[in-house]
Design goal:
Largest interface: A-B, 114 and 110 residues
Structural class of chain B: mainly alpha
Distance between the termini of chain A: 30 Å
Helix content of chain A: 55-70%
Shape of chain B: globular
InterPro entries (chain A): DUF6691 (IPR046513)
Pfam families (chain B): Sulf_transp (PF04143)
Number of helices of chain B: 6
Radius of gyration of chain B: 17 Å
Order of helices and strands of chain A: HHHHHH
Largest sheet of chain B: none
Keywords (chain A): Membrane, Transmembrane, Transmembrane helix
Main location (chain B): membrane
Number of strands of chain A: 0
Strand content of chain A: under 5%
Pfam families (chain A): DUF6691
Oligomer: heterodimer
Distance between the termini of chain B: 19 Å
Number of domains of chain A: 1
Number of strands of chain B: 0
């Protein structure tokens, strides 16, 4: 896990994720709000981004997870919890509302840091505070 | 509807594919889900071990757009809304909500669905639905 090669792979994964968000328009809050605005000027791009990503992962994840372990670790770190509970629904609903209000979800917000907008910084700091408060107040 | 060019669609599909490939690299090599919330918010947890890889991933996430806008002369997106209370409220509930439901668009939407996780499928439908409601209320009822 601590090999240089594993860190290079992780850096590459981060780069590809960021490049993917940037070229597909997902770092643009107006494009994302346009997708969520089904009764306005609907922008269908997000659905193509999500479908393309899903086709890639749906075809490969089952094969990868058939392996005993990943290359650089002794086990797959997957969520063990499988129950659909109130926390999941309430949390996802809160996120959906926040997502619509500004057009940022966590990935694009962080990937937009280099654009240098103060709005992005205000959103990210608030988001970290929100996650921190959730961590402290719910078990 | 917004009129999109074939280049918009091509870049959307290519961008989505790159995100999918990023998720493959993370799962195949280090056995982790490429979920931005999980990767980022675990940094707030002082007990979390194996921290450095999270910073490395986030570094790539920030550098990637920087490089691609520079190299391909891709226009920088317009600034988000400058309504400060709205930015703070949206940030707070996005952080709280994604932490509470253990994932966002990447962790639940892209990786979770590919693992056929019923939690992720329910979460994705829920945040999409509330995203639609939120924008409808914001743009068409409140008019912001």
């Amino acid at each position: 896990m601590n090999t240089l090669f594993s860190y290079l792979i992780i850096l590459l994964a981060g780069l590809l994720f960021g490049i993917g968000l940037a070229i597909s328009g997902m770092n643009d809050t107006h494009v994302v709000q346009g997708f969520l605005d089904v009764f306005g000027q609907w922008d269908s791009r997000l659905i193509f981004v999500m479908l393309a990503a899903l086709i890639v992962t749906l075809l490969t994840f089952p094969l990868i997870l058939k392996r005993e372990k990943p290359i650089f670790d002794s086990l797959f770190h997957l969520p063990k919890f499988s129950q659909i509970d109130r926390k999941l629904i309430i949390g996802a609903a809160m996120f959906g509302i926040g997502w619509g209000l500004v057009g940022y979800c966590p990935g694009p917000a962080i990937a937009s840091i280099s654009y240098g907008y103060w709005q992005t910084a205000v959103f990210i700091v608030s988001m970290l505070i929100g996650a921190f408060v959730c961590n402290k107040t719910t078990s | 509807m917004v009129e999109l060019t074939s280049s918009d669609f091509f870049l959307a599909a290519l961008g989505g594919s790159l995100i999918g490939i990023s998720a493959i690299l993370m799962l195949y090599f280090i056995g982790r889900i490429a979920g931005i919330c999980g990767i980022t918010f675990s940094l707030l947890d002082s007990n979390e071990i194996n921290k450095p890889w999270r910073w490395v991933f986030l570094l790539g996430l920030i550098l990637g757009p920087m490089l691609v806008h520079q190299i391909y002369q891709l226009p920088i997106p317009d600034a988000p809304t400058d309504n400060i209370p709205l930015l703070i409220l949206a940030g707070l509930i996005t952080g709280f909500g994604t932490k509470l439901s253990n994932g966002c668009t990447s962790g639940h939407g892209v990786c979770g669905i590919a693992r056929f996780s019923s939690r992720s499928i329910v979460a994705t439908i829920t945040f999409m639905l509330f995203g639609f409601i939120s924008v409808y209320a914001l743009k068409h009822l409140i008019g912001l």
